[in-house]
Amino acid sequence: MTIDTSTINQPPQFHTLDDERQYRKERLAAVFRIFAKLGYEEGVMGHVSARDPERPDHYWTNPFGLSFSLIRASDLVLIGPDKKVVSGHGLVHPGGLLLHPQLLRGNPEIVSAAHTHSIYGRSWSTLNRLLDPLTAESAAFYRQHAIYDSFAGGEGDNLARAVERNKVILLRNHGILSVGRTVDEAAYWFISFERSCQAQLLAEAAGRPQPVGAEHAEAVAARTDARFGWLNFQPYYQAIVQEQPELLQ
């Protein structure tokens, strides 16, 4: 299979809503395959959404109980505002129903949200601390991530309001929730934040890491915008499609 890199610098434009829907579904299926390879799958826990471009109060997501490593675009289910399956086959993920409908309804600019129980994110979430801007990657989240106690505030409208302009919400004692204006962006923020949690845990185990200055961190966070998140997901997508092309089915 040959990868077309001619439009790699920016998200594509679509002639029809059907084309845009298929694009989002293929990217979403790829996210699950990538997350499986990276070890983010924990039993049946975890879900990622993609807003439908034609019906913005509907979203595509993984059917409950199907391994991330097996998901194809055709396996995804469309969930309507009544929280029932409108298209596709499978059970609705009960955890996803507590999060995605309210989050997408309350934040119309968001297209995708990702949450799994990845090991470093959920480990860091127990500390009730924001990440420090230790590296360029973690500086991307400087003042653009927040802590939210889902056990106290729930995962509905209160969480939707907490998202605001953040790239990531750190769910206390739970794990990472990332959001984006594209599926690609939400997935990259999740991957990068998980690795930043890992880096800080390792650095603090070794000694006393020193963060970069606030001015530098703010500049980095401002540069790493939605397009940056989309662009940095492309190598992951290229590799998984080459390796597992059946995910596009």
Report on the structure:
It is a single chain. The chain has 249 residues and is an alpha+beta fold. It has 10 helices and 8 strands. The protein has helices spanning 17-37, 94-97, 100-106, 119-125, 136-139, 150-153, 157-163, 183-206, 214-223, 226-243, and strands at 47-51, 59-61, 77-79, 85-87, 112-116, 145-148, 168-171, 175-180. The protein has an 8-stranded mixed beta sheet with strand order 4-3-2-1-5-8-7-6, sandwiched between helices. β7 and β8 (175-180) form a beta hairpin. α1 packs parallel to α8 and α4 (119-125) packs across α8. The longest helix is centred in the last third of the chain and has 24 residues, at 183-206. The chain is globular, with a radius of gyration of 17 Å. The protein starts with 16 loop residues before the first helix and ends in a 6-residue tail after the last helix. The relative contact order is 0.16. The model has no long low-confidence stretch (mean pLDDT 94). GO terms for molecular function: actin filament binding. Belongs to the aldolase class II family. Residues 26-201 form the Class II aldolase/adducin N-terminal domain. It holds the Pfam family Aldolase_II. One of its GO terms (cellular component) is cytoskeleton.
Key descriptive features of the protein:
249 residues; alpha+beta; eight-stranded mixed sheet; 10 helices
